[in-house]
Write a structure and sequence with these properties.
Strand order of the largest sheet: 1-2-5
Largest sheet: 3 strands, antiparallel
Shape: elongated
Oligomer: single chain
Mean pLDDT: 81
Distance between the termini: 17 Å
Low-confidence stretches: none
Order of helices and strands: EEEEEE
Number of helices: 0
Strand content: 35-45%
Radius of gyration: 16 Å
Helix content: under 10%
């Protein structure tokens, strides 16, 4: 069973990756019915089971569709054809600042990380 409000999609934007303190912006796109009142959105960056960074903020998800997307919210289109846009009122961004312990990726040592977003009412 899917809750009335859920995270539909996320997109992670790494920044300053060559500095000693990289940052990560995480766009979270909500779908479903907007709850009454605020909720807390959290994001955690993991290297395996080790937490590298964590942040949260209180948000209010706005009702209404994205003015730049198709009117039909249901589509058989593949994931890469997403209609979520910069102006989507359901988009919320969390920023993880000055992250310690991030290893640079290269072909010989691909360092992959997990972002774990969640929302609480």
């Amino acid at each position: 069973m899917v809750p009335s409000l859920y995270l539909d999609n996320i997109f992670a934007h790494p920044k300053n990756v060559l500095s000693g303190k990289p940052t990560l912006d995480v766009d979270c796109f909500f779908a479903g019915a907007s709850p009454r009142g605020d909720l807390v959105l959290e994001a955690e960056l993991l290297d395996g089971e080790h937490t590298l960074a964590k942040t949260s903020k209180s948000i209010r998800v706005l009702a209404g569709g994205d003015p730049n997307s198709a009117a039909d919210p249901s589509t058989a289109a593949p994931v890469y054809s997403s209609t979520e846009t910069v102006d989507d009122p359901a988009k919320q961004t969390l920023s993880l600042k000055e992250i310690d312990g991030v290893k640079l990726w290269d072909i010989a040592t691909p360092n992959l990380y997990t972002i774990r977003p969640q929302n609480r009412i």
